């Protein structure tokens, strides 16, 4: 057992103190253990020091050099200041060069030694090291051969050198006594390094091979702990909870389905069968239904609510926005028209008297179905007999929020709807606490939205096209990344564009504005006006991204499209093409042939949400796409879902071995693993189940 406590406050670590502790807190580093698990984001290979005499243009080099004199400043044109610091290493001389960074000139002292790393530029009779990274050193011998040097996620006023020294001090304090929590048979089975070797070599690797061995062990730990956490949540649902089995066959469900204005697709019927099988079981349903935009998930929620109401249980449907809650409420009113099923909308902006009436009706059972936003999980909401909980757009709700709603009923059935389509294998991992159903078929007649990537210079032609669509009785969305103009971000804001278009009268008076800073009432009014055709062009932010359904809208324009993820762009594109008319999506960006431009071109070629999500994961990582932190899980720091497929399978197999009792953990290992899992799940899990 280690003498030093992992939860030792970071300020008491050598080299930290109160001021630096506050800086470390900005990096979510509060304890000694947090320092250990603050892994490098990259490494610099400082194996070879390259003398200036051997430099070639275009090389990235390491140099140990002395400042040869005072800085020089050149101003070749307006808004360009070049700072040149003369350097020498005994073989030749050069300039370290920075652009528009005047402050850098005060950082260097003539005669002192520095380590630098940067790109070489040779031209016009001058040797330059462009925008190098640098550290002051005490002597030229200090940088003899450092090998792979860690580069950490950092913050202002916390240099890499200081951060590295803090990590070194922690590792010296631990002295190889960090407690191992994986049993030796598991490590042997999967050829995993011992924990102290892994921790030392992830921070200060002896060589590239040692780094790979360390990374593999710690990436396995991340995946193993994540899946063990999900297993714990699901295990409680599977074993500890007993819910109400619903009748399915004598409640008029078949007749209700026959009355629908459309036939269910094969995929909808298959997923419905899975939902009904769950709801007829004493084990409460805990199912994720995911599918592409427009695949018809909402009707599955309607049918599940019908089953609950027909069994004399209440259903609660929770949406992430007021606009979407209002839309769900109207959809349910339409489908349940003529049935003895009472529906209520519960929103945060209701008047006090009206809200109290609804709360009383929910409490005494006069309301069968409640639709709302976060208002549904407030303490003052008491259900008479809650039997079904539906959360729409899973990535907008965290583990805690969903759990609060579940606790309002006696183990209700839970159905989660997500329009973030990801491959089934990944869904089983990232939504490991849920059973997974996929609606992988689109309803007949659903139009493919033609997508174009255009430069800002084509706006006038685009506006003419939109006016043509308006004259044909159609409508358009224009989405901006910002609500208001920002000096820090070069992007068009919704307010700015609205004011411009209003002033120029390009679309007449039939123009509206919607964004997240508006009150719920104002947003609902604007959306109603758009749905009713009073507004032809709606300018907004991504507040309209989720679920909004206006079949008459045929054009989606996204300004500064490079600022959005692919999955988000696909969601936005899914707001059009919902009717019988040909629909279009225009992605406006200056990105051209850059990486961002190539990413946007993917959208013009792909229309399958699963393939787009896969591309987005590879570009941005699964954490951002799935909103892991909102889901109640920390981002994966080392594991990569695409390149670590083998580790993923092994970690899942290891969890199953624990569950089946094939592998037994001692009490100390359980305690250490529990601490590790709770850290990864941001303390959103109260109890860990190992078998």
Report on the architecture of this protein.
The protein is an alpha/beta fold. Among the domains are: 48-145, OB fold (Dihydrolipoamide Acetyltransferase, E2P) (Beta Barrel); 253-281 and 298-418, P-loop containing nucleotide triphosphate hydrolases (Rossmann fold, 3-Layer(aba) Sandwich), CATH 3.40.50; 450-606, P-loop containing nucleotide triphosphate hydrolases (Rossmann fold, 3-Layer(aba) Sandwich), CATH 3.40.50. 37% of the residues lie in helices and 19% in strands. The chain has 23 helices and 21 strands. Strands 11-12-10-13-14-9-15 form a 7-stranded parallel beta sheet, sandwiched between helices. The chain is globular and about 90 Å long. The two termini are 25 Å apart.
Task: Name the features.
691 residues; alpha/beta; OB fold (Dihydrolipoamide Acetyltransferase, E2P); Rossmann fold; seven-stranded parallel β-sheet; 21 strands; 37% helix
